[in-house]
Each structure stands twice: as C-alpha cells, then as structure tokens.
Specification:
alpha+beta, single chain, four-stranded mixed beta sheet, three-stranded antiparallel beta sheet
C-alpha cells in the first residue's frame, strides 16, 4: 500500500492551503476569537471551491474524489484552525439541499452512545440533524418517531426537526472559536434514512484529520519559535531539551499521519478508531509541548498555541473520545480472539 499522496493530491492540498491562507489568515483567526459568528461569505467560498462537494459524483455537481482526498483537505483545515461545522457540511452535502454549495449550513449532533448532545455553532446553522443509535441517549426520541419508517422505534437512525428547532441551551466552550449548545429537549422528529455507522465512522476519521493538521502546525510553530528565541546568548533550538520536545512532536505527527491516511484507504472501523486515538494524542500532546517551547509566552493570548490546545481538547471529545475508542478497539480485538 502506497500512502504517499499523488501529484493531484499534493496540488489539492496546496490549493486548499492557499485558499485558507488568503481567506482565513492569522488576523481573521484572531478576529474570530472576539466574534465567533460563522463567516457566511467564507462558507460560500468554501462551497464554491468544492470543499463540501468533494466526494459527490460529478453528475450531482460534485468533484468526484474520494475519502483520502477529503482527509488531505481536512488536514489543511485543522492546520488553519478553520471554525464551523465542517464535518457536518461535508458529510451531509448530498443530503441537505444547499449544503454542498455552502449556501446552507448544517449541523450534526451525535445524541447516541453518550454523544453528549453538543452541537457546534448554535444559531448559525440552518438545519440540525440529530444522530441516534438503537439505545440512544435522547429520552423519548424513539417513541416520538415510532411508526415513521426507517430509524423509528429504537432503530438506528438520524432525525431532523420538523418543523420547530429543538430546545437548545448554550454551554461554555473550552474553544473560543467554537460556540456550543446542548440539545436539551426534542420536538417531534421525522426520520431521515442515513447510514449511521458509516456516518459516525467518517465523522471520526475527518475529525482525526483536523487533529492531524493541528498537530502538524504546532510542530511548525515550536520549531519557528525555537529558531528565533534567544536565551543565555544562544537560540533555544540548540538546547537538547527543546530538540527532544520538537523531535517527539514530529514523531507523533508522522505516526498519526500514517494511521489517518491508511484508515482513509481501508475505511475499516478498527483502523478509524486507531487513527482517531493517535491523532487526538498528537494534537493534545503536541499543543502542550509547543506551549512549553514558547515558555511563559505560550500561556498568553499573544501566541496561537493556546487556540490549538483548546481546539484539540474539544475535538478529542467528539465522535468517540479516548475511553470509548479504547473500549471499542479492545472489544474488536477480543472478538477476533474469540473467533479464532
């Protein structure tokens, strides 16, 4: 298996980085911290560039690429700390009219299996889709949907509100770029047939790609700072302790990158679980180490590293946190032992 990107994929990644550098540079990033409202103009530009329709067939107005290509694009989005319900927009581009072009913003909330009912960008999305498993956490959801076809009466499914919005309670977010709300109450829903296991698997993988991009960017930030900062008459990058920190950060990124890229090719549940675990670890630990390289400055608003750390913490709890991922991976491996 060749995990190296092709020339076309490298061009796709370079084009995405150029677009984000032009439309979401550091000044815009810091402005978004003060005003985290979703930039609709940027969202539409992402749609025009094919960000959301990347995997839709060309006959349906999409780009016709695959999951490995989407992972490369999301890696760049994570590197730039691009805010917004990116995963939802991409996965629901072929389901919600207008989502593929960025004209309509859709949110995706995992309310099953202890998903926490947390939804990104309350008030900014045009439509919210709730994803539930057979033993969903949303009290009464299955009963309300009974008799509604696919996804009814405790069956796995996805629901959207018809016609009213669910009742939302704003909650404090660790990431200043990502406002959150908790889905606290549910009006009657109409089932919408979606492949929930596939949806969850791809959401976890794309979130891992976002984490990978953030982890890679914090390596760059640490190396850049270590090459500039002078202490005791020498650049701190010449100190052995700093060298070790940066080397360990790079190793985590490369291990996570291999896992994420491989999972995008196989699309197997076990591979995705492992990729999410490794990418979460790389994003969180690299941000912490980058903060250490920055020293006292890393704890201030002057450095962007704290934004990467807060985003990494948030993403690590989405679509399968470490505890649930480890349990799922262990169960999968034990199942193989029993079968053999």
């Amino acid at each position: 298996m060749d995990l190296r990107p092709t020339d076309d994929q490298r061009a796709l990644r370079a084009g995405t980085r150029e677009l984000l550098a032009r439309r979401f540079d550091r000044d815009r990033l810091r402005a978004a911290v003060a005003d985290p409202a979703l930039d609709r103009a940027l969202w539409r530009e992402l749609g025009a560039a094919g960000f959301f329709a990347l995997r839709l067939p060309e006959a349906a107005g999409g780009v016709g690429l695959g999951l490995p290509d989407a992972v490369l694009v999301f890696e760049e989005a994570g590197r730039a700390l691009l805010p917004g319900p990116l995963v939802a927009g991409h996965l629901l581009a072929g389901t919600v009219p207008g989502a593929a072009t960025g004209e309509r913003v859709v949110g995706l909330c995992d309310v099953g299996a202890g998903g926490g009912r947390l939804w990104e960008h309350p008030g900014d999305c045009d439509e919210l889709i709730l994803v539930e498993e057979a033993e969903g956490a949303a009290e009464g959801m299955a009963d309300e949907a009974a008799g509604g076809g696919a996804g009814a009466a405790g069956q796995p499914g996805a629901y959207w509100n018809d016609p009213a919005w669910p009742v939302l309670e704003p909650v404090r977010s660790v990431d200043p770029l990502t406002p959150l709300a908790r889905v606290a109450a549910f009006p009657r829903r109409v089932p919408r047939p979606l492949d929930v296991p596939k949806l969850r698997r791809e959401a976890a993988l794309l979130t891992a790609a976002l984490q990978l991009g953030s982890a890679a960017r914090t390596v760059e930030a640490a190396v850049e700072h270590a090459g500039r900062r002078v202490q005791f008459g020498a650049r701190i990058g010449s100190f052995q302790a700093v060298k070790h920190l940066c080397a360990e950060m790079l190793i985590r990124v490369e291990i996570a990158r291999c896992a994420v890229y491989a999972a995008s090719l196989t699309e197997r549940s076990r591979a995705v679980i492992g990729a999410k675990l490794l990418a979460d670890e790389a994003a969180v630990r690299n941000a912490r180490d980058c903060l250490q390289v920055h020293g006292g400055m890393g704890f201030t608003w002057e450095a962007d590293v704290h934004l990467h750390l807060k985003r990494a913490w948030l993403r690590a709890e989405q679509w399968q946190n470490a505890a649930k991922a480890e349990e799922a991976l262990a169960a999968d491996l034990l199942g193989d032992d029993v079968a053999s």
